[in-house]
């Protein structure tokens, strides 16, 4: 089932369900090579989300700011390659939502545990705002908060469930968004957690 949240924002409910086993198998070695970590915001607060990346570029935050890098600051190695199962699903999802030539070169991996949340923000470190972002939810459900172009617009809640894919482009690309704290629960695949994969196209960043 396909739902338009607002112009440019398409929810493909269950679109990843037939790919879950491949995604999960490919995720384990990525997390081994580039362990999840809770980074510091530029303001010095530790994020509640644990993150890592794969692909050419990885997103980091520290006291110096938010940015994409080619290497993982914790291992000093290049970020692990993006698994082909990740890449294929992201391309197919974007195409299903009307974005024909999306070729992501970064995948940010977020892990939520009970109580983990993400406050309202815009994603604008990628450089090229004409490219969409594709997000894939795995594991426990969460209430996503979909806002407007200004932080002051009251967000509306959307439940994101295991296997859901969202594509954000066009006017939706710069909307504020966040998630409510994850509720406790147990999922047969991910246990007490939720994973979110976001696929991005990052212009030369360094
Ligand atoms: C709308 N992640 O990684 S996914 C993020 O559930 C992020 O982990 C949330 O926000 C999560 O930046 C929300 C949905 C999402 C992702 C990126 C977007 C919505 C978006 C970029 C622009 C607009
Ligand atoms: Fe975001």
TrEMBL record:
Protein keywords: Dioxygenase, Iron, Metal-binding, Oxidoreductase
Signal peptide: none
GO MF terms held by the record: broad specificity oxidative DNA demethylase activity; ferrous iron binding; oxidative RNA demethylase activity
Domain Fe2OG dioxygenase: 103-203
Residue ranges of the TM segments: none
GO cellular component: cytoplasm
Matching InterPro entries: Alkb, AlkB-like, AlkB-like_sf, Oxoglu/Fe-dep_dioxygenase_dom
Gene Ontology biological process terms in this record: oxidative RNA demethylation
Residues annotated to bind 2-oxoglutarate: 110-112, 194-200
UniProt-annotated binding residues for Fe cation: 121, 123, 177
Obligatory cofactor(s): Fe(2+)
Cofactor annotation comment: Binds 1 Fe(2+) ion per subunit.
Binding sites annotated in the UniProt record for substrate: 59, 66-68, 125, 151
NCBIfam families: PRK15401.1
Full protein name: Alpha-ketoglutarate-dependent dioxygenase AlkB
Organism of this sequence: Acetobacter orleanensis
């Amino acid at each position: 089932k396909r739902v338009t949240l607002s112009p440019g924002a398409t929810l493909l409910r269950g679109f990843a369900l037939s790919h879950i086993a491949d995604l999960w198998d490919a995720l384990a070695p990525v997390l081994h090579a580039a362990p999840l970590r809770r980074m510091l915001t530029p303001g010095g607060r530790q994020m509640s989300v644990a993150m890592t990346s794969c692909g050419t570029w990885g997103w980091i935050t520290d006291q110096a700011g938010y940015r994409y890098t080619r290497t993982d600051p914790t291992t000093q190695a290049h970020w692990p390659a993006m698994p082909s199962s990740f890449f294929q699903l992201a391309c197919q999802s974007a195409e299903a939502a009307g974005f024909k030539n999306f070729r992501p070169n970064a995948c940010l991996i977020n892990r939520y545990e009970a109580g983990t949340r993400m406050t309202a923000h815009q994603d604008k470190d990628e450089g090229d705002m004409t490219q969409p972002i594709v997000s894939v939810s795995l594991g426990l459900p969460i209430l996503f908060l979909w806002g407007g172009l200004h932080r002051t617009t009251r967000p509306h809640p959307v439940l994101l469930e295991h296997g859901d894919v969202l594509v954000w482009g066009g006017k939706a690309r710069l909307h504020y968004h966040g998630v409510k704290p994850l509720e406790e629960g147990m999922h047969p695949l991910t246990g007490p957690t939720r994973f979110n994969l976001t696929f991005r196209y990052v212009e030369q960043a360094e």
